[in-house]
Amino acid sequence: MSISTEQLDVTAGRNGQPAASPGKDVPVIYFEGVHKIYDLGEIQVHALRGLDVTIQRGEFVAIMGASGGGKSTFMNLVGGLDRPTRGLYKLDGVDVSKLDKTEMAHIRNRKLGFVFQGFNLLSRTTALENVELPALYARLPPAERIERAREALRIVGLAEREHHYPSQLSGGQQQRVAIARALMNRPSILLADEPTGNLDSRTSVEIMGIFQRLNRERGITLVLVTHEPDIAEYAQRIITFRDGKIRRDEKVAHPQNAEEVLKSMPVVGSDD
Amino acid sequence: MDIVSIVRVALRALTRNKLRSILTMLGIIIGVGAVIAMVGVGQGASEQMQARIAQMGSNLLIVQSGSHQAGVVRIGFGATKTLVPGDEQAMLQEIPLIKEAAAGTSTHQQVISDNNNWGTSIQGTEPSYFDIRAWEFDLGTSFTEQDVAEANNVAVLGATPLLNLFPDGSSPIGKTIRIKNLPFTVVGTLQPKGQSGGGQDQDDDVYIPYTTLQKKLSGQNWLSNISVSAATKETTDTVSQQIVNLLHTRHRIRAGQHDDFDVRNLADVADVANAASNIMTILLASIASVSLLVGGIGIMNIMLVSVTERTREIGIRMAVGATEADVQKQFIIEALVLASLGGLVGIVFGLITSWLISAIAQWPVDVSILSIIVAALFSAGIGIFFGYYPAQKAARLDPIEALRFE
Fold this sequence. Notes:
By secondary structure, chain A is α/β, with parallel strands linked by helices. Chain A has nine helices and ten strands.
């Protein structure tokens, strides 16, 4: 599905908000009074209790907080995998809560890229084919699909591994394939759910370096869930969740620069 | 996802578990093979029956001289003397739907050639009889209408008298045989027709003009039967009714009186035989279809297992943008590929089985292109039908749950 600039204007003007000027000024993620209640039959779990969040285009945000604080629920909502029980969620100015399942799938396909803790690559499928996957669902012609997939692998530094299977790649390399896959349809937002959770510290920094580069050079908005404070330090803004609400929302004064950190790290432990 | 990619993904998923895929396909292979072979056997039997019936003559009606009642004693068919050549002439004149007719009467005589003799049935008839019965000549031709008109001494030999009177294999055409001390010139011989359905030798007859038989052998002026061929198969019933009406008038039979004749419609016999062989074909096909059904259930079973095993994969696909329709299509096509491959192998298996049945059991087997096409489409249909529910189950998965699946 395509979202026209006109549509963006109309939706941005609602709810008493200052009508955003077209394009860049519309917040990429806008939550207003969002509640999420899971009905588990006997009990109801109130996972989000009236959340208000605005994330602007090009931001690099880390989401922190204890488990059960609402991080995952927030990510599922942002990622269009679930809908709020109450409240408003606008992605690029479009009210996502009003879309049906197929439209949500298109949103996930075109506007979002997912990176998971467990990589979630298809086994017995080459790196290149894994990266191609979102383009298959975007119905891109084969030639363009392969060209783009190669480019995405080049961006994450795995051009020469395109015919490797996930089982032949290290954890760090698998996560890079996953990032390349997330980049495939040129999304505006990259959602990373504990992307360094299964990686050693040097590889973690390398992955953060890729994220910082994508954010800096391509202006991709990054939302990253982590519970490692030193990983969160690479972001520009840290939002801390607790009991389904935002407990703290602060700018990072001096974010870590992954490239510089890497230089000071011992080379031992690199898996490339 | 485009169809090429879907089929590629499906083939990869199926080759990932080769043994399982082959075992699942086996159900369809056996089912399709059995359907093709069984329908082939049924069709073969049906065609053999059709050929037998065609040999009896097409659109054939036989008017038989009827039973006769003397007081309380009822005498069987052929007892009355009321069926006469004039009846045949009247039928030909008054019933336009009759294509041909041939008078028939018979006797049993010893036939003598130079060095051999053979007791056989002598059939008095007309040249049109061979047309009506669609019998082919081996040597020579039939006697002529003129021979009938002049009551000439000419004869056509069936294969059995030929073999017994001329055992050396020499051509009997133009030679003389003797029937009841009268010389007859052989003008033709018939091709062997084999045994009838009842096991009678259909070749053990000598045919002469009915006039010759009446005047020179039996001295009777009545007929035992008249063979009639209707213009088309559809008109046999009409012709039959018209003959009954005509003979009622000619024989002055009033309502309530017993007929002194009987009209037998061989098209009815053919219909019954056809119906019987069709029932047999349907029966065989339904039994074979049960195995096809079981094969389909096997596919459904394996697809359900596959959906459960690949829950995480489905979750990943949904996260990167697969719609419910995409996921559903993927699994249906996987089932379709499984069933179609099974169907193709099953067709080959069915052809081999049919060939073995016809070669070993000497049973006529006729595998039609239609049954192959139907089998191929049917197996594809089974794939779609039995793949639908598992595919639906896959498409309805919640992506969050699916991604969390271990």
